[in-house]
Design goal:
The protein contains 12 helices and 12 strands. The protein is an alpha/beta fold and 343 residues long. It folds into 3 domains: 4-47, Orthogonal Bundle (434 Repressor (Amino-terminal Domain)); 61-161 and 295-324, Rossmann fold, CATH 3.40.50.2300; 163-288 and 328-341, Rossmann fold (3-Layer(aba) Sandwich). Helix 7 (130-139) links the parallel strand 3 and strand 4 (144-147). The protein is elongated.
């Protein structure tokens, strides 16, 4: 690997001059710049980005902290893909760092990105509390945006989806279509998203004067296998239900498979709704009804906010994004509606 000294020797200049050319600081004639760039090309020299970032205070990189347990699934694939594309279109690069398995490790990941000289930091937290996140926004002078959490102190520094409201609406649609015995498969209950979706389900039942039946609530772990296991638990308990609301599409798919194995048809015997609207959802048989979170819109807004802060602009007031329920073949009217009204 070539060094800056080799570049300087080939260009016939000092290392200090090469450093000035790379950093853009200090006067260097165009002729000398051309000599240095030619020497860089000839030697294949790649500058130490960390050193250059520290020298220029401008890395052209934005950091993203995501805990590794959240990597799987289409939701996070879309989030990371859209973030990388949007930043690239703005002449910047995305640096992804693992927040690992605790609030301390998420904090360490944020500090690592700061030490790298990232111009801004995006946090998709799992363990850090609201108070922790507000303190982080206070601590760093650079732009910080939090995704999927509503901050108390720095509401302009967060973008979040109304998971509780979207779950309420999905449950409400099932109730209005004649389903009163609705099973619910939670996500991992250490996840704020899972907690909010569960809360929306319970709130909708209460709003329609329906009991929250603990025997119809089964904890899942976001995977298809856990969705199948949840249905197995419901069937073993001989619970009566005409619909299932699963906290993500993977669990909904597992639930549909287990229902089919048990000789129960979807939607004739049980209607099913999931969350996230993964690409395969409309191609299943029956096509899966799902709640679509506006992930791309949220990511684009986050990047726009960071770019605006870097350019000295104002933060947008658009913080909350709403989801859409996409009804497909996996849902029909329930037993509370007369047969002639069934779709």
């Amino acid at each position: 690997m070539s060094t800056m000294q080799e570049v300087a020797s080939r260009a016939g200049v000092s290392k200090t001059t090469v450093s000035r050319v790379l950093s853009g600081k200090g006067y260097v004639s165009q002729e000398t710049k051309d000599q240095v760039y030619k020497a860089i090309e000839d030697t294949g020299y790649r500058p130490n980005l960390l050193a250059r970032n520290l020298a220029t205070s401008k890395s052209m990189c934005i950091g993203l902290v995501v805990t590794n347990t959240l990597y799987n699934g289409n939701y996070f694939s879309e989030l990371i893909s859209q973030a990388a594309k949007k930043l690239d279109a703005n002449g910047r690069k995305l640096i992804l760092v693992d927040g690992k398995n605790s609030a301390v490790e998420e904090q360490e990941a944020i500090e690592f990105l700061n030490d790298l000289g990232c111009e801004g930091i995006i946090i998709y937290p799992r363990f850090l509390s609201i108070d922790n996140l507000d303190a982080i926004v206070d601590k760093y002078k650079k732009p910080v945006m939090v995704v999927n959490r509503k901050l108390r102190k720095h509401q302009s520094h967060c973008i979040y989806c109304d998971h509780k409201g979207s779950s309420f609406n999905a449950t409400k649609v099932l109730i209005e279509r004649g389903h009163h015995d609705i099973a619910f498969i939670t996500g991992s209950m250490d996840s704020p998203t899972a907690i909010e979706r569960f809360a929306g389900y319970k709130e909708a039942l209460t709003a329609f004067a329906l009991p929250v039946r603990e025997e119809l609530i089964v904890q899942g772990k976001w995977s298809s296998a856990s969705g199948a296991a949840a249905v197995e638990t419901l069937l073993a308990g001989k619970q009566k239900f005409s619909a299932i609301l699963a906290s993500n599409d993977e669990m909904a798919i597992g639930a549909m498979k287990k229902l089919n194995d048990a000789g129960m048809a979807v939607p004739a015997d049980v209607s099913v709704i999931g969350f996230d609207n993964i690409p395969i959802a409309p191609f299943l048989i029956p096509a899966l009804s799902s709640v679509k979170d506006p992930v791309s819109d949220m990511v684009i807004e986050v990047i726009n906010q960071i770019i605006s802060m870097l350019d000295g602009g104002y933060l947008s007031e658009q913080n909350q994004f709403n989801s859409d329920l996409i009804l497909r073949d996996s849902v029909i009217n329930g037993p509370r509606l007369s047969p002639q009204n069934k779709s």
